[in-house]
Specification:
12% strand; elongated; alpha+beta; 3-stranded antiparallel sheet
Length: 116
């Protein structure tokens, strides 16, 4: 599965677990992803029985839902968490290597110019 897709699924599931009564718009704003993408992710998670979506009829905002992770959703979220962490560690290692290369390049060019 694409890392970007897994990242979005993980972040939505994590937020839903933290704040079950949240609007899709709030998820979109908090995670910085398009509202349509949030809707797509929630529907896909619901279709796979990873979350249960229940509309709160008494809510003042009809856009609010209770998004509850199912037991399978919790298990899937845990696996996604491990995958997410591995991906972030790879990104961290790549950034660290890039920073080291830039520092070495800078040190070499400063030494080559006789600047101390």
């Amino acid at each position: 599965m694409d890392d970007l897709v897994e990242d979005g699924r993980f972040r939505v599931m994590w937020l839903v677990e933290k704040r079950p009564v949240i609007s899709q718009r709030e998820i979109s704003e908090e995670l910085g992803i398009a509202l349509g993408r949030v809707n797509y992710i929630l529907r896909a998670l619901s279709d796979k029985w990873l979350i249960k979506i229940a509309n709160f009829r008494n809510s003042h905002s009809k856009l609010r839902y209770a998004d509850i992770l199912t037991s399978e959703g919790i298990s899937t979220r845990s696996a996604l968490r491990a995958s997410f962490l591995r991906a972030k560690l790879r990104e961290y290692d790549a950034l660290e290597a890039e920073i080291d290369a830039l520092r070495n390049d800078l040190d070499t060019s400063v030494a080559g110019n006789g600047v101390s």
